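Two proteins were folded this term; both appear here.
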Amino acid sequence: MKVIYDMKNKTNENFVQIPNKMFMDTKNDEKLVYVKLLQSQMIGYLDKDNRTTMTTVSLLVSLLGWSKGQYSNKKVATALNGLKEKGYINFESTQDVFTVQINKWNDKEEHIVPVDWKQSGVKFSGFTQIKYSVIDNLLEGKDFTLYSYAEYRTMKTHQYRICYEEWALVLGMTKDGAFKNVNNTEVIVKVSNGFDSDTKRRETNSYLTFDSVEDVKEVSLKPTYKAQSSKLVVKEETELVEDDFDNFEEEEISLKVEDKKPIIEAHIKPSKPTKQKDNKVVDIHTKQAKIDSKDFLNQIRGNTVEENTFKKMQREDKRVTTLSESKEIQDFDVPMSVSMFKVINTTDSDYIRKCGAKKLKSEKWKKKFGAELNEAVRKDNELVYKTKFTSKYLYNTITEFYKDGGECVISSDKLYDYVHNRMVYSDDEYTYFTPTNMVPHLKCIKVTEKY
C-alpha cells in the first residue's frame, strides 16, 4: 500500500533551512534557538558564506516566547552551548551582546543511525525548509521537532510512515513518551493506513503538518489505496524512478496488498504507460482514479486538525458546539466572541484553557483582534451590571421629584442611566440626589415599594 502526495506549490514567503542531521543529534530547544538565530541573521548580515548575527540571551528568550527569568536564560545558554559543541554554531561568550557564527553544513552528506527495529537504520540527509509564518506556532513542548520532522518526511509521490520508535529517536525520549507527544499535539495530522488482517495489527501511520491541511483535497486524490490488481501495484512499486520523489526508502512501502483494508479505497483504471528519462516505465494511473466522493470527503473532513480539535474540545466542554466556536478558541486567524472568551475563563478543561491562553497572549492576534474583543467584553460586563442593577428594582416604584413640585414615575433603565453617567448619587439606594446643576430641574429620585 502507499499514499501519494501531490503538494501545492508553496507560496513565495520567507523560510529558514535546518540540516536534517539535526534530527539525530539535537534537542528540541536547540533546534528552536538555531531557528531564531537564523531568523535574526536574515535581517542581519546576509553573507551566505559567513553567516553571523548579533544577539543576547534575553533577546532569544523573548523571541522564543519563554517567561523571563534565570530558568529561561539557562535553557537558552544550554541550547547555545549544545549547538556549539555539535558544530552548528560558534561564539566566544554569551555575556551581554555577542556575535554568533552560523556554520556552513554539507546538505549532500548522509547520516545513518543504526537501530534495532529497522535493519537498514534511519537515514538523515539534506535539509528542511520551515516557513516564517509557522515558527511562532511551534514554540511549546516538542511541537517544533514534531512539525519539522513531519515536514522533512513528507514526500512528493509517496508516504513515509513513521513508527513510534522513530518518533522516540528524533524526540530523544522513550516510545511511550513519543506516543503521548505525537497524540497530544495539534501541529501534525495523523494519516491512518488501516488494519493489516495478516498481522492483525494496524499499519504504521504517516503524518502531515497542520498547515498542509489546506492542501488536503489535492493530496486526497492520491490516497492510500488498494489496487484492483496486485500485479499492477507490484509492477509499479518495483519499477519506481528514484528521481520522482525525495528521500524515498524502499522498505517503507509495503508491496503486500491482499486482504489489506486501507482507510480509502480508490478504484483504479489502468492507463497507458509513460516513459521516464531513464526509459523505465511508470503507470500514471492515479489521474484516472474513480473515488466515491461523498465517502471520501467525509474521511478527509475527519482527518483535519480543525475537526480533531473541535471534537476534543466538544468532549471536554459541551458549550463548544460548533467547529467555528472551536476555531474562536484556538485559531490565530479568527476573532473571538465573548461567549468563547467566557468558556476559556470558566472551563474545567485544561486543554481549552491552554489553547485559549496561547491565542490571547499572541501579539499578532492581539494587534489584529484584541481591541475588538476588549470592547465586546466591556459591553458585556456593562450589560451584566445593568441587568443586576435594574433587577433590584423589579418590585419598586421609582419616582422623580422636580423643583417646581411636579413628579414622574420612571423606569429602572432610566435610573441606571442616571447612575451610570454619574448624574445622581445615593447613600442608601432608595433616595438619589443630583449634584448642583447636573440636572437643574430635578430635586431628587425616590424608590418606594409597589402596593
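Next, the second protein.
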Amino acid sequence: MEQINVSVIADNRMLCEKFGAVFGKRIFKAEKYNVKLDYFEHKRKVEENKGITTNRPVVRYAIVPIDITKLELLKDLDGSVEVVINKDLVGVDGKSIEVHCPLDNPILTKKVTTESLLEALNSGSKSPIFFSSSEALESEINRQNEKERGRVTALKEDLERQLSVLDQTINANSNLVSEYRRQLTIEDHKDIHVTIEAD
C-alpha cells in the first residue's frame, strides 16, 4: 500500500470526519476460547488410556477491546482508499490490532444481535467483525457464557449422580462380602449329623 495524496482528504473530507469521530474510542471483538487450552491433546491421551472426557471442549466467550489510537489513509492495490486503524500496532496479547475499512464505508461496527455475534465468533481472523456497543455485547456474550455454564452444570450433576451410583455399588459389594465372611465364622453349638445313603 502507498501513502495517500493530500487531495484524497480534500475529496473525502466528510467521510474522513466520520472516521475521526472514533479516534480515542474503543471497538470490540468477540472471541471464543477453549477453557482447557490443550483439550484436543488431552482428549487424545484420555482416549488412548480408555478414559472418559467430554465430546467437545468447554468454551468461553470473551470481549476483546481495541483502543483506536491511530488512523491512516492508504491506497489499496486496486486503487481504492481505505482507513487503517492502528496500523502496525499489537495488543497486550501480542496480536495485531490493525483494522482495515474502506473509506467509502464508514460503518465499522455491527449492531449486536445473536446472529451477528455468532457470525463474529465463527468468522475467524479473515474478516473480523467489530462492535461498538460494549453494553449490548456484554449482555449477549454473557448470555452465551451462561448457556455454556448451564451445559457444564448439567454434565457435572449427571456425573455426580453416576459417581453416587458407583459409591453405592462399592459399598454394596463390600457389605455383601463382609456379611458372607461373618456368616462363615458363626459357630452353631448344635451337632448336625448328615447321613448320606447310597443306593
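The mean pLDDT is 87. The longest helix spans residues 134-184. These notes refer to the second protein only.
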